[in-house]
Specification:
There is one protein chain. The chain contains 16 helices and seven strands. With about 350 residues, the protein is α+β, with helices and mostly antiparallel strands. A five-stranded antiparallel β-sheet has the order 4-6-7-3-5. Strands 1-2 form a two-stranded antiparallel ribbon. A hairpin with an 8-residue loop joins strand 6 and strand 7. Helix 8 crosses helix 16. The two termini are about 25 Å apart. The structure holds calcium ion. Calcium ion binds next to loops. Calcium ion (CA) binds next to loops.
Length: about 350
């Protein structure tokens, strides 16, 4: 999970953190700033022992600031990188076979999770595969250090101070500082949740009463399913299907006119929503059975003559996890491969 996806959570976090003590002047020393953060966490009920072990010897990590500043800005408006090579790299044999292994290893859990949350096992597994290669690559940054550094540096202070305080609350549930490692931007565990997302949506999948997304595959899978249900996944609907488009069909003529409130550059590439029945009347044919009343948007990322897809509202749920067409398409296509479609 990248920093962009959790917009809903961030917006809520930004609003809840008005002019609290964590909003210090940016010229404050790291130690002085950390005192303010710590005081705020204490005021929100985090125990003294947790604060001590999570802040012992804490110094800023300048590598984290560099990584934050290296983030690419808005892509050039004139073009998008092609999708096909991205898919070839990200939905490769290793990720497909790893996904099939994970899917069969966790088949019991996935069946139970699908029953409870209504999200297909292959979608959950595909998210796991894209986030951490099925748990192999979870990130090694000390989360307390990384988030405190970014909060102190100040460019996105509200976001990162909120996440640091949320991390203290996660630690207070009995996780060691050594367990609480992750990406430089604060995403952690098998599903790469941010701490605030963990507090809101992490859940127990193996019945031991703890939502241990760092160490338990079952907990991670149940937590991803909970995220998807919360984001509005519609049970029984695919994420999208390949579609054939008549020769000379001008997809651009059906471009959406709606300006998306978040990640506009992602949504502006999709067509207007029409029912599958309306698309069929225009000659656009889904390659798998789809009810005529399902709403879908048409997406032909690499231009005329290249593959096209009809995407349902469930595609937008994948975008909530990480707002990128490249990410969402590769999750959907990997899920199809895992399920043998
Ligand atoms: Ca558990």
């Amino acid at each position: 999970m990248k920093i962009q996806p959790m917009f809903a959570a961030f917006a809520a976090a930004l609003m809840s953190l008005s002019a609290g003590p964590a909003q210090a002047q940016s010229d404050m020393s790291f130690d002085a700033y950390l005192q303010l953060l710590t005081a705020q966490a204490r005021a929100e009920g985090v125990s003294e022992s947790t604060l001590q072990r999570m802040t012992a010897g804490l110094q800023p990590n300048y590598r984290v600031i560099e990584l934050d500043q290296d983030q690419p800005g808005s892509p050039n408006r004139s073009g998008y990188p092609p999708l096909a090579p991205y898919i070839a790299r990200h939905v490769d044999n290793a990720r497909i076979s790893g996904g099939r292994d994970a899917f069969s290893r966790y088949s019991g859990t996935l069946r139970a999770v699908e029953q409870e949350y209504g999200v297909p096992g292959e979608i959950i597994t595909a998210i796991w595969g894209h986030e951490t290669a099925y748990g192999a690559v979870k990130g090694g940054f000390d989360l307390s250090q990384a988030l405190a550094t970014l909060a102190w540096e100040g460019r996105r202070r509200e976001l990162f101070s909120t996440e640091w305080i949320a991390l203290m609350k996660v630690a207070d549930k009995g996780y060691s500082r050594n367990e609480l490692k992750g990406s430089w931007a604060g995403a952690f565990g098998n599903p790469q949740f941010l701490p605030s997302v963990y507090l809101r949506l992490a859940t127990d999948g193996n019945g031991d009463g703890r939502a241990d997304i760092m160490n338990s595959g079952a907990d991670a899978l149940a937590s991803i399913a909970n995220y998807f249900r919360d984001a509005g996944w519609r049970t029984g609907q695919p994420w999208g299907v390949r579609a054939s488009v008549p020769a000379g069909f001008n997809v651009a003529a059906y471009r959406t006119e709606i300006n998306a409130p978040i990640c506009e550059r992602v949504h502006e590439r999709h067509s207007v929503y029409k029912t599958i029945g309306e698309w069929r009347e225009l000659g656009v044919q889904p390659q798998r059975a789809m009810p005529n009343d399902t709403l879908a948007t048409l997406f032909q990322p690499d231009g005329p003559g290249s593959p096209a897809w009809l995407l349902t509202s469930n595609y937008r749920v994948i975008l909530e996890y990480n707002c990128s067409n490249y990410y969402a398409m590769s999750v959907g296509l990997l899920a199809d491969e895992i399920a043998g479609r």
